[in-house]
Specification:
This protein has 388 residues and is of the alpha+beta class. The protein has two domains: 254 residues, Metal-dependent hydrolases (TIM Barrel, Alpha-Beta Barrel), CATH 3.20.20.140; 52 residues, DNA polymerase, domain 1, CATH 1.10.150. Helices cover 28% and strands 19% of the residues. It contains twelve helices and 17 strands. Strands 1, 2, 3, 4, 5, 6, 7, 10, 11 and 15 form a ten-stranded mixed beta sheet that branches. The protein has a three-stranded antiparallel beta sheet with strand order 13-12-14, with no helix packed on it. Strand 3 and strand 4 form a beta hairpin. It is globular, with a radius of gyration of 20 Å. The relative contact order is 0.12. The structure holds zinc ion (2 copies). One zinc ion (ZN) binds next to loops.
């Protein structure tokens, strides 16, 4: 069965009113997320990565008591029988050279997530909040999650300059002292870029939204073939299996990501030129935010892209809000005509789109599918822009 999974979604606030991810929307509650996934996004597997927060654990227990959530035999929980909730936690851990990075931990059961919450809670200042720093080693947390709890553990948004394992800690994952079945690519990279790093040959790539609001859920997601939509089969797909596989990654054209190119903080602009550019070419100030592309090219040392045979296609999906000329009214017309964003982005033919929004916008939506639009690339925390 083919299904779609977004495994990195934040909670804004618990139903008690306690904040979980302060910068995220209040509408990101368990019910809000699961409803959005089912009704509007067409996502069948939702990974919520703030489940180690005790107020969130309490919400999950309440939903279990009300039978809105029901544990699945293979791990994970089903929400109203139609969407699978995978319990996750994002944690910040220090690398070997002073930088730190975010990691994603997923557990099969609520009991295991409670154990993880207690385990991390002793070394995190405020376990109620999202993505907090734990004073533990990467190896220690990896061993606990994978061996003690039977869970999964791997780097989040691996290339981003602030909290990515490659972006902020190391040039090789070997230096982290643990091995990982997968990495999350993050919005500013794709599998063409990541497959320039040879050590990732046997690592699976995941593309997730890191959503901080309901509309941003599924701006990146994974197409999976799973025998059953539960934790055990998801884990098989992520570890590499014949019957349960990652069919495709869907995500932003990386040029639109917020950290794609190096950004000079003094000149206040994205650098231009052949990567890698690691210092500003027009001033000598030196304060830059290293771009994901520039970082990967540096690590790859001239290596070109080599996709291993298991690597699925990476399909560009440019959110409609990025397309010049698509405002709220145009979006409503498109949704009325085609039903879902997925249908507009990937399904509708150019002629069908043109009948609703004219040939210029239709042409841009179709060109977005192949990455052939002209863009001002993103960097330094600012998204890229499609040229109008
Ligand atoms: Zn993160
Ligand atoms: Zn400069």
């Amino acid at each position: 069965m083919t299904m779609f999974a977004d495994l990195h979604i934040h909670i804004g606030r618990a139903s008690s009113g306690e904040p979980v991810k302060i910068t995220a929307s209040d509408k990101l509650t368990i019910q809000g997320i699961m409803g959005e996934c089912h009704q509007r996004k067409g996502i069948q597997i939702a990974g919520i990565i703030d489940c180690a927060s005790p107020p969130v654990l309490k919400d999950i227990k309440n939903l279990l008591e009300q039978d809105q959530l029901v544990p699945l035999a293979g791990g994970g929980l089903t929400y109203k029988g139609d969407t699978t909730l995978i319990l996750g936690a994002e944690v910040e851990l220090a690398g070997p050279h002073g930088g730190s990075a975010h990691f994603l931990a997923y557990t099969p059961t609520l009991g295991a997530m409670e154990e993880l919450s207690s385990f991390l809670g002793t070394e995190i200042t405020n376990i109620c909040l999202s993505s907090q720093r734990a004073r533990m080693s990467i190896l220690e947390v990896n061993e606990f999650v994978t061996r003690e709890l039977g869970g999964m553990f791997f780097p989040a948004h691996a290339f981003t300059p602030f909290k990515g394992a490659y972006g902020n800690c190391v040039a090789s994952l070997d230096e982290l002292g643990a091995s990982f079945p997968a990495i999350e690519l993050g919005l500013s990279s794709d599998s063409d870029l990541a497959d320039r790093i040879l050590e990732l040959e046997n690592v699976r790539f995941l593309s997730n939204s890191d959503a901080h609001s309901l509309p941003k859920i599924a701006r990146e997601y994974n197409a999976l073939r799973l025998q059953t939509p539960d934790f055990a089969h998801l884990k098989k797909a992520i570890h590499g299996d014949d019957a349960n596989i990652i069919l495709a990654n869907y995500g932003l054209d990386p040029r639109l990501g917020k950290y794609h190119r190096t950004y000079c903080l003094k000149c206040d602009q994205v650098v231009v030129g052949k990567p890698p550019i690691v210092t500003c070419p027009t001033c000598s100030d030196g304060r830059v935010v290293l771009g994901v592309l520039d970082g990967i090219v540096t690590i790859a040392k001239g290596q070109e892209t080599i996709h291993p045979s298991h690597r699925p296609p990476y399909i560009y999906q440019i959110p409609l809000e990025f397309i010049p000329g698509v405002g709220p009214k145009t979006l409503t017309r498109l949704l009325d005509a085609f039903g879902t964003e997925m249908q507009i982005l990937h399904g509708a033919a150019k002629e069908e789109l043109a009948e609703v929004v004219g040939s210029s916008i239709a042409g841009k939506i179709v060109a977005a599918r192949t990455g052939s639009l002209a863009m001002d690339v993103g960097g330094g925390g600012r998204y890229g822009r499609i040229q109008s």
